[in-house]
């Protein structure tokens, strides 16, 4: 009887295992029976995305429901994040904050590609962080202005002086570089021809312009020297002023002017710069690589979203995602979520209480008035300003410095009462539904950095959707009676000498000093910094700053949505 039972049990297990295996596949259609990838048929190319793994330097944040909002009570605290239960889907998130080294790579690329043309040099300059954020009227921080971003001693420290707008531009640039490399590695496109950005000899210009119809070569003046004075290259022999100059080729001996010829900015923007959306949707076609993808008829084609080769795009995390990732709420073996976290670590203590790390500071922050790092010979957090992004212990998701070090930009527009109107799933305020812009010929318009221009109408702007903060609707721009100013030239002269444009700048009531200034451009930042007290290390706290401003206490990290499977253990590294 026992043997019969064992046979029945074994048979049941086998049948159950067989039934549990997925019948769906990418070889044969389970609905029509026709083979996929068969050149004798329509050669339909079916794909399964399960094999694509974790982007480099990111970790999987397995989503779920959690209680977002205040975890403790402070009498003087702003009540701008009341508790409510939300669900976030799984997503990827950078293990570390974006570093100075990361941003230097970005700036270097912008300089190599755009920095040699007068028309595009401003694109490179706009990518630079604002070093003046270190200046403080009653402190000597001048060395940080020149060295914090550039010196290798700070390579692995978080980049600061970066606005929300700059961070978003970096995310787009990172997306394009990662996708470009993925296409190069799989042989779909050729490696970018950076050698074509090198100076072109004057004799070769006609041939270059013939090979690139519609584009020209720019003439860039590197430097002009006074007659008889040395240029950057070569030298004068001793003698009378104006004696013949002996230097490199390309020197105009009469005027001492050095010329350099390069492809035009328009050619670089349209033909050289890889942009994911432009590559997929516009007429931009880079050279095919060693193993280009083929269409149904055997012709080379561009990679598209259906191939699953490219990442869907880096971005800033939403506020809900960031707070979820910081707290790292995870159920135990019994499926019960352990509550009680005030900070990314368990409990109220800023020091680690575990046996192996007892007494170790868990974040970089200010302990008290004037105490930035402890006493000489007994430093506690070891850093007076920022710390390396891998300093201190990670939280339960493996993320470093989710409290302290630097605050971090998130994607959301700030509203004090955002909690009153929210979605239960992937909550976010700041949606703008864009669509690509086309010219009169129906072609996609390309912006200054080679990306497809997007536009939107007022109906697509959802940043103020069901805004519960009534003060944001108060009209604060009151027109003044400027008739007297217009009739009195002395008053106009006084304003002009003061540098005030009375026709524009005096259209607001100067007495309205208490009017609210929360606009659609105010963005949330979270996490606390090296300059904050422990209260701001609570991930539920939130502050805001205009998206075009920056600070020496604000950095960021990137996130990316996960498509398909949400379980952590099913994700593999790329």
Structure description:
The chain has 574 residues and is α+β, with helices and mostly antiparallel strands. Among the domains are: 2-46, no CATH class; 202-267, no CATH class. 20% of the residues lie in helices and 13% in strands. The chain has a 4-stranded mixed β-sheet. Strands 1-4-20 form a 3-stranded antiparallel β-sheet, with no helix packed on it. A 3-stranded antiparallel β-sheet has the order 5-9-8. Strand 8 (251-252) and strand 9 (257-263) form a beta hairpin.
Strand and helix layout:
Layout: H1 2-20, E1 58-61, E2 64-68, E3 84-88, E4 91-94, H2 100-114, H3 121-126, H4 142-147, H5 164-185, H6 205-211, E5 217-224, E6 235-236, E7 245-246, E8 251-252, E9 257-263, H7 265-272, H8 276-281, E10 293-294, E11 300-301, H9 319-327, E12 374-375, E13 378-379, E14 407-413, E15 435-436, E16 454-455, H10 483-487, H11 489-497, E17 522-526, E18 543-546, E19 554-555, E20 559-561
Parallel strand pairs: 14-19
Antiparallel strand pairs: 1-4, 2-3, 4-20, 5-9, 6-7, 8-9, 10-11, 12-13, 14-17, 15-16, 17-18
């Amino acid at each position: 009887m026992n043997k019969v039972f064992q046979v029945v049990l074994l048979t049941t297990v086998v049948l159950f295992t067989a039934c549990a295996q997925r019948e769906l596949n990418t070889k044969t259609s389970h609905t029509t029976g026709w083979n996929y990838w068969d050149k004798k048929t329509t050669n339909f190319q079916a794909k399964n995305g399960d094999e694509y793994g974790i982007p480099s330097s990111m970790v999987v944040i397995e989503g779920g429901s959690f209680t977002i909002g205040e975890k403790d009570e402070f009498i003087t605290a702003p009540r701008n994040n009341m508790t409510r239960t939300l669900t976030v889907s799984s997503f990827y998130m950078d293990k570390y904050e974006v570093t100075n080294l990361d941003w230097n790579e970005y700036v270097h690329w912008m300089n190599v590609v755009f920095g040699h043309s007068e028309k595009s040099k401003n694109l490179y300059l706009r990518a630079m962080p604002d070093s003046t954020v270190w200046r403080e009227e009653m402190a000597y921080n001048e060395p940080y202005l020149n060295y914090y971003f550039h010196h290798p001693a700070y390579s692995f420290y978080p980049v600061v002086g970066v606005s929300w707008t700059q961070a978003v531009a970096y995310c787009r640039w990172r997306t394009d570089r990662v996708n470009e490399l993925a296409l190069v590695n799989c042989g779909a496109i050729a490696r970018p021809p950076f050698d074509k950005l090198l100076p072109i000899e004057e004799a070769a210009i006609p041939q270059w312009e013939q090979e690139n119809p519609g584009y020209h070569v720019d003439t860039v003046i590197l430097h002009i020297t006074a007659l008889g004075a040395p240029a950057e290259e070569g030298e004068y022999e001793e003698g009378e002023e104006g004696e013949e100059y002996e230097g490199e080729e390309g020197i105009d001996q009469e005027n001492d002017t050095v010329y350099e010829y390069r492809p035009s900015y328009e050619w670089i923007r349209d033909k050289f710069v890889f942009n994911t959306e432009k590559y997929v949707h516009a007429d931009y076609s880079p050279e095919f690589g060693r193993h280009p993808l083929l269409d149904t008829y055997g012709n080379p084609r561009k990679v598209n979203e259906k191939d699953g080769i490219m990442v869907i795009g880096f971005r800033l995390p939403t506020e809900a995602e960031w707070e979820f990732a910081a707290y790292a709420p995870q159920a135990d073996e019994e499926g019960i979520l352990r509550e009680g976290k005030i900070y990314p670590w368990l409990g109220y203590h800023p020091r680690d209480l575990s046996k192996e790390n007892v007494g170790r500071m868990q974040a970089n922050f200010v302990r008290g008035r004037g105490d930035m790092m402890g006493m000489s010979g007994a430093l506690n957090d070891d850093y007076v300003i920022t710390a390396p992004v891998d300093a201190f212990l990670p939280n339960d998701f493996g993320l470093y410095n989710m409290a302290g070090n630097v605050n971090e930009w998130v994607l959301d527009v700030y509203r004090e009462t955002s909690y009153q109107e929210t979605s239960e799933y992937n909550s976010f305020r700041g949606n703008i539904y864009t669509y690509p812009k086309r010219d009169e010929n129906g072609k996609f318009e390309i912006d200054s950095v080679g990306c497809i221009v997007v536009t939107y109408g007022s109906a697509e702007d959802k940043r103020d959707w069901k805004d519960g903060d009534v003060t944001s609707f108060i009209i604060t721009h009151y027109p003044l009676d400027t008739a007297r100013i217009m009739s009195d030239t002395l008053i106009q002269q006084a304003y002009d000498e003061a540098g005030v444009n009375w026709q524009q700048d005096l259209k607001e009531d100067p007495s309205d000093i208490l009017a609210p200034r929360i606009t659609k451009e105010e963005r949330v930042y979270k996490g606390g910094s090296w300059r904050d007290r422990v209260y701001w290390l609570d991930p539920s706290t939130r502050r805001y700053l205009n998206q075009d401003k920056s600070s020496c206490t604000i950095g960021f990290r990137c996130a990316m949505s996960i498509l398909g499977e949400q379980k952590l253990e099913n994700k593999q590294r790329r």
